[in-house]
């Protein structure tokens, strides 16, 4: 059923251009668009905040979101960001516990912040490291900080920095790459996964010669930072992309971006487009974005602004074509409703959310392999879909157990004080839970029936029932539980 409902994902009918979206009577700035924006470029928002954003022009709002992301301080040192092996061994705590502490910090960032954290997660799935392959919490923390610092910076400099990151040097064997025993792992992934795409614009000779140019980063003391050792560097001539010289690390980056400018821009713009707009590419949009990226010297900030402000991004056909990741699913539910939770659950909320996202296949800072999570349809299987229903339902149940009346409060916030029409109520609630989704008639009828519950029909539409009735918390609770089982709830 789920696959049939997602067939529209394979056709991109989005004809909007990269011109800035300006709301109009026929294409208004509304609840669905506000939620679409924050679900795509952040980790959503509280439903109670939506009206504030409806009063800001979308272009101005995006400027505001980006300014906040640029100015946001990186996550501070938890006290062990510079530990070496001796420090960890003397701490009385195993390394896995430090890593889990870091995962908790990151998940708190997802729950409390937006664009910068969304981009950090995105780039962690591009410049992949798998924690359990090198088992060094301090390296992981500094890697995460490096991502945070560069998510909206210059992509060329991002490439330069990430290749010398301690976690990356360990994960892709740069630490083992020496003049007398070159290791090609990082040079291959630099081209295949980070800049050009598989088999696109490079040869095996380019990989081999690049590996030689990247030798020398092999010195460290007791598991501390990795540094350059000139005695381990291959100082012979290398030929990379047809250019010969005694090339070193910085030379590789310069040659790569000079010789493969168009290929890099195309590859990165496609990756960004698939993650933030649609898994089905619009070639004319990619070409325009790529040219814009090159014109701006590979600066990421103007590229992201160009895309996220565009009428193409906000076009209705962009909605509901990307499947929520496990992190999206759990954080959106928790963040959007913003419900009070039982104390015993609230204290363990972070642990619960992280454990459930891991059960569904997404463990923070530990993607499945060097190519990262492939996302979209890979998130859904016969095993993970029931988990999505179960875990979402469990959250709703915990909120209801904590305070039933908060369900009435939220419903009144959504529909107003004087709406007694169950069809209207269901449609309005649907606008909050789904982005630009046209509910099927049978589902609408089912939803209305569930919302009415045991209240007789004669009590609605002026028959005495109001949104202040004692039955309302349970009615709304049941409606939410129904909506989160619909296939479209898995989309954003």
Radius of gyration: 25 Å
Structural class of the secondary structure composition?
A: mainly alpha
Portion in strands: under 5%
Low-confidence stretches: 6-10
The backbone outline, from C-alpha atoms, is: globular
Largest sheet data: 2 strands, antiparallel
Separation of the first and last Cα atoms: 18 Å
One letter per element, helices H and strands E, the order comes to HHHHHHHHHHHHEEHHHHHHHHHHHHH
Nearest-integer average pLDDT: 95
Please estimate the helix content.
40-55%
Biggest sheet strand line-up: 1-2
Count all strands and give the number. 2
- Number of continuous helical runs: 25
Counted up, domains total 2
Overview of this protein structure:
By secondary structure, this protein is mainly alpha-helical. It folds into 2 domains: 16-320, no CATH class; 326-490, no CATH class. 53% of the residues lie in helices and 1% in strands. The chain contains 25 helices and 2 strands. It has helices at residues 2-5, 31-41, 50-54, 58-71, 85-89, 95-112, 115-124, 137-150, 155-163, 166-171, 185-195, 204-213, 249-259, 261-276, 283-295, 300-308, 311-314, 326-337, 343-346, 349-359, 384-402, 405-415, 422-433, 441-452, 472-483; strands at 238-240, 243-245. The chain has a two-stranded antiparallel sheet with strand order 1-2. Strand 1 and strand 2 form a beta hairpin. Helix 23 (422-433) crosses helix 24. Mean pLDDT is 95; it is low at 6-10.
